[in-house]
Amino acid sequence: MKAQKTVKEKTKQMIRYSPQHSFENDYPDKRQQEMKRRFGILQTRRSYLERELKVVKNCLFTLDKQMQSYSAYKQLSTQSPENSTF
Questions:
Q1: Is 52 helix (H, G, I), strand (E, B) or coil?
Q2: What is the DSSP secondary structure assignment for residue 18, as one 8-state letter?
Q3: Which alpha helices (DSSP H) does the chain contain, by range?
Q4: Per-residue pLDDT tens for 18-51?
Q5: Is there a contact between 84 and 78 (Cβ–Cβ < 8 Å)?
Q6: Rounded Cα gap, residues 62 and 50, in angstroms
Q7: What is the pTM of this model?
Q8: For 44-81, what is each residue's pLDDT tens digit?
Q9: Rounded Cα–Cα distance for residues 19 and 26 (Å)
């Protein structure tokens, strides 16, 4: 009887250490690690895109100011000579 118990224990140990059993135990950990890895990648990408967007906004602001200045200059330069104060 004692020999049978030992065989059952060995069988349980074999099942416990089988590759399938190991995969089932490791799957949630690996999945969580993969989600953390993807999250980190997306955070890095988000930061990069936010910086890039800030640069684009600054460029658009500068361009708008230049366009306004040019428009004002063009209006002043197209006035008739009798209205100018030379």
A1: helix
A2: S
A3: 2-16, 19-77
A4: 556 565 678 889 999 999 999 999 999 999 999 9
A5: no
A6: 18
A7: 0.53
A8: 999 999 999 999 999 999 999 999 999 999 999 888 56
A9: 10
| pLDDT at site 14 | 54
| Half-sphere exposure at residue 23, Cβ-oriented, CA atoms within 13 angstroms | 3
Amino acid found at 68:
Q
Dist. CA 8–CA 1, nearest whole Å: 11
Report pLDDT for 1: 47
Q: Which residues contact 21 (CB under 8 A, 6 or more apart)?
A: 15
Tokens linked to 57: 């906004």
Which two tokens mark 59? 């460029």
Q: Name the residue type at position 2.
A: K
Residue type (1 letter), 50 = E
Q: Are 78 and 72 in contact (CB under 8 A)?
A: no
Rounded-to-integer distance, Cα 59 and Cα 48, Å = 17
Read off the tokens for 68: 């306004």
